[in-house]
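Reviewer 2 asked us to include a model.

Predict the structure of this chain.
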Amino acid sequence: MILALDASGRFSITALQRGDETLYASGISGRGAVRSVYSSVDRVFEQADVKPDELDAIVLNTGPGSWTATRIAVTYCAALAFGAGVRVFGASGFEIGRRLDAAGVAFIDQLGKTVAEGDDAPGFTVNLFADVDAETYLETRRAWLGEMLKLGYEKLSAGEVGDPLELRTTYFQEFLTGAKR
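Predicted model (structure tokens):
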């Protein structure tokens, strides 16, 4: 059973796959990133009637996106995985986007700025802060969560460690890469 969490945008969205069944939930908005992240995960656990220690792994979008919500999601997932004794895998939004379209993805952030990887035109653009309600946002991102779930299963099958103490936001990863040059 895999849990996928993406808190990079306006809403925290979560998917839980158990066998052939996939359940989805969006977080409570307007009350801060912490409540949005926790509530989306709590809602999907409640729908599935499962506990965190029943998971095989957690996969999480590490950014780019909402800086605060992404940091909270990384911390929350690392703690949840550590406490439940499950593996956790982080993937950048760029990595997830390339799985959906080889040309990649660009993101529109909360300031309306487009963030893309490289100089090539991306295959598609995701507005992380679209002016829509939580359910509409979740509907537009289901394929995204589906790719995250597939990625989690692939990493489990490959025997990857998924150490919660190694989880980082994409921003932090980019900083470390730049600092090593």
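The beta strands are 2-6, 13-18, 21-26, 57-61, 87-91, 105-108, 114-116, 124-127. Residues 8 and 65 are 4 Å apart (CA to CA). We have added this to the supplementary material.
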